[in-house]
């Protein structure tokens, strides 16, 4: 890492935009992108994240958890970072919906950094993250979505032929 970058303090403030829903939830993504640029290291693959970051480096709650997980499912993203304070929102979701996800619940940017840069996408050993206090939920595979997205077993009938 750049010596100057490591010794300086940075603050990025993104004021609320014209659309009230835009903004705070992108804190974790902005942090990961800026760290990637500063360290010239890519963020781990197959990873989505959401969460507001305070000036003290705490990752705090966001809204729209179900919608954000739906977007992940639609784009085949299976590893997701969420604020620990949003665990209660995930708990309310049906078990069938949560299938296929590995969810990392974080409290701070140190945990976030370790998931993004020290945990390869293919890794299944998360002990170093648990040691940092990351709460991890590993849900069963989602064979239905795999079939739909990979078009392996589900056949879509030719509707035009059926209408003739």
How would you describe the overall organization of this protein?
- This protein is α/β, with parallel strands linked by helices and 164 residues long.
- It has a single domain (3-163), classed as Ribosomal Protein S5, domain 2, CATH 3.30.230.
- Helices cover 40% and strands 13% of the residues.
- It contains nine helices and six strands, in the order H-H-E-E-E-H-E-H-H-E-H-H-E-H-H.
- It has helices spanning 3-7, 27-39, 65-74, 87-91, 95-98, 109-118, 127-131, 143-150, 159-163; strands at 47-49, 52-53, 59-60, 79-83, 102-106, 135-138.
- A hairpin with a 5-residue loop joins strand 2 and strand 3 (59-60).
- The longest helix has 13 residues, at 27-39.
- The protein is globular, with a radius of gyration of 19 Å.
- The mean pLDDT is 84.
